[in-house]
């Protein structure tokens, strides 16, 4: 049995591994101080992030957070046109964030004055703040924790199916209805990876070299083997190296990509056949979507809600990838700043964006404070204050916090929301960080608080995916649909209840996880 005591005590709402003060600073300041004026809600009066080494938690007062989520969810369901307008703006800002962040990697930063460094920093930061600050409202907050938007849409689909007297499973068809026509960044990379793999495959000399050579030698000598293919490989590497970066890196190395092509060719798989299968699967889903829309006969408002669902899935991936790309590109700038200030890269990341500006322009910073933040700190934010507490101050602050009480009894069955239908049995592996991926074997049931692109290699091995974070826009749900892996999301406290080695049956179609005696 699982019980949560409903009160206004503090709750750890979302876990963010490998987080930084810099990454959170712009979005938090925007969320607390500008959301009310933009009609995004003012229900949250105080918030803090807890940073402890590589771990961090987004913490809200429970009642305030629930009210804020409900405000946004209700507004989106009542007026999907309003939500779609926000999504369009976030897409535009995210695109400009991609462009301006990329510029940072092409500048001769060491030749720029401190003032010019900050000009480029602020230009990128402008779109970063808008993309992340506004985007988190409709693509995370509204559907976080209790999946209010997802559940409202599921209910709407269920009622319409019943009205039309159709023999359809709402849980099974909802992931199809909410699939966007656009490819995610991971899908996009996979398609281009296979196109380039086909070019290598067709060149007998290069193909045999990939199959027979040592990876280190291949990486260093590829340019001399075939310069045209080498240039294409470098282009792919530069375009997609950021994908697993998240907030602190690392991104993919050139060797990572070459190793993937090498493994594919050694398996004897024909790249074009794999690519055709991916294209066919995507086309099939979109065709099923069209057929279902005609069968279910949604009215104009309901159709707008389905459009909103698809755009929510798209924008969650797009703005997140813009954020990962931005963090990857900021590293070029931050390394130059760290040299000028005599700091490490991690010390620079331990500053808010305004502290970085102050440090580079006026040489104002405290090394001991930055070091303390890297061990333990809290950023406490209200509508008119942003305070960072570290060391003993952070510990004293946390000692005074009253956390919501959660009672976990003996539980043999858990429930959540279907992200991709299917039924499978397997052995549980808890995977939250890249270091956990070595535990995964083919067919294991991968359980995570929330996944990210760092964990996709492990996700591809999974027989099924179970995520504690929920909603149709969560990363686990998006990737599950792309890979066609049975998945359940929004499974409360699953990472606390299930342990490595547990045998479970995952009935994703029904949204149920059952523990089986070992």
Task: Provide keyphrases for this structure.
single chain, 518 residues, Glucose Oxidase, domain 1, five-stranded antiparallel β-sheet, 20 helices
Question: Can you tell me about this structure?
Answer:
This protein has 3 domains: 2-147 and 312-400, no CATH class; 185-279, no CATH class; 411-516, Glucose Oxidase, domain 1. α4 packs antiparallel against α15, α8 (204-212) packs across α11 (254-266) and α9 packs across α10 (227-240). By secondary structure, the protein is α+β, with helices and mostly antiparallel strands. It has helices spanning 21-34, 62-78, 80-106, 114-139, 148-163, 170-177, 185-202, 204-212, 215-225, 227-240, 254-266, 271-296, 300-341, 345-349, 353-362, 367-375, 391-400, 456-459, 475-483, 494-497, and strands at 2-4, 10-15, 46-52, 55-61, 376-382, 386-390, 406-408, 413-415, 417-420, 423-430, 445-448, 464-467, 487-489, 503-507, 512-516. The strands form 3 sheets. The chain has an 8-stranded mixed β-sheet with strand order 8-15-14-10-11-12-13-9. The chain has a 5-stranded antiparallel β-sheet with strand order 2-4-3-5-6. Strands 1-7 form a two-stranded antiparallel sheet. The chain is globular, with a radius of gyration of 24 Å. The protein contains 20 helices and 15 strands.
